[in-house]
């Protein structure tokens, strides 16, 4: 089967500049509705990946997202949300983007074309076979990502790739290919749209499922969240009030004393 770049196929919507605002919005929404179904078809592969990650993280392993452009930014975003949401140190899920910090806000010329740089950046973390590397590239052809994954896989590190093209070079470079085929973009080739939306959904699924399986959620509550603002403190108090049937004053005292919802619940459950 020859490699087909669906991400570069012409949009199904013509003469966009002549459409009304309402028609543009409805067209974008029409395309977005295809994303969840495309992601759903990937669940067996995502399940295999999550299972592998949990096994490795229970032995001290880490997860590395690696990508360029929009894909890299989404990886960094997901990684950055783990500490405040689940109370895990930022050393467990790490986002790496071609071009470094600058590339989060500005394009860095030729950064994604370097086949060696991605692996060099992974080596700086003393990566081992307990870790997992997830490459993100809508096209499935980004040299920076593929080069890093090839080197990681050679060394027995679990690898996965998230792309929007079937049978891509990225898929051939990894243990677990996750091919989310969302079809042509509303604006031809603009993979920040449906492909980016699907990538975000898949990253949410991976990291959230992993954190739940590692015990960072109780029931359906973020009991390990960082209490970094008043909204989260209030949420924490409500959790304690509901779980332990305490009034607001007592819940607040306990939260201030122990610093996290989980610690409060653990102490009370031992009584």
From TrEMBL:
UniProt catalytic activity: N-acetyl-D-muramate 6-phosphate + H2O = N-acetyl-D-glucosamine 6-phosphate + (R)-lactate
Catalytic residues as annotated in Swiss-Prot or TrEMBL: 81 (proton donor), 112
Pathway: Amino-sugar metabolism; N-acetylmuramate degradation
EC number of this enzyme: 4.2.1.126
Cited InterPro entries: Etherase_MurQ, Glucokinase_regulatory_CS, MURQ/GCKR, SIS_dom, SIS_dom_sf
Subunit comment: Homodimer.
NCBIfam families tied to this protein: N-acetylmuramic acid 6-phosphate etherase, PRK05441.1, PRK12570.1
Name of this protein: N-acetylmuramic acid 6-phosphate etherase
Originating species: Phocaeicola massiliensis B84634 = Timone 84634 = DSM 17679 = JCM 13223
Gene: murQ
């Amino acid at each position: 089967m020859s490699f087909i770049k669906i991400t570069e196929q012409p949009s199904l919507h013509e003469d966009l500049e002549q459409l009304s605002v309402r028609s543009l919005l409805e067209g974008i929404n029409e395309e977005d509705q295809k994303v969840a179904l495309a992601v759903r078809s990937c669940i067996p592969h995502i399940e295999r990946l999550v299972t592998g990650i949990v096994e490795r993280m229970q032995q001290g392993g880490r997860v590395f997202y690696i990508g360029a452009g929009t894909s890299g930014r989404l990886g960094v975003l997901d990684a950055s949300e783990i500490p405040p949401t689940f109370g895990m140190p930022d050393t467990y899920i790490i986002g790496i983007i071609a071009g470094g910090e600058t590339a989060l806000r500005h394009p860095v010329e030729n950064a994604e074309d370097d086949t060696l740089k991605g692996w060099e950046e992974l080596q700086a973390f003393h990566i081992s076979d307990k870790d997992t590397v997830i490459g993100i590239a809508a096209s499935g052809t980004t040299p920076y990502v593929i080069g890093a994954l090839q080197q990681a896989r050679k060394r027995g590190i679990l690898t996965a790739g998230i792309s929007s093209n079937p049978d891509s070079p990225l898929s051939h470079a990894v243990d677990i290919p996750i091919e989310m085929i969302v079809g042509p973009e509303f604006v031809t080739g603009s993979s920040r749209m449906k492909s980016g939306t699907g990538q975000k959904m898949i990253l949410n699924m991976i990291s959230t499922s992993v954190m739940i399986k590692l015990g960072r959620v109780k029931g359906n509550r973020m009991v390990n969240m960082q209490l970094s603002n008043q909204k989260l403190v209030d949420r924490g108090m409500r959790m304690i009030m509901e779980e332990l049937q305490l009034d607001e004053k007592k819940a607040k005292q306990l939260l201030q004393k122990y610093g996290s919802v989980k610690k409060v619940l653990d102490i009370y459950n031992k009584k």
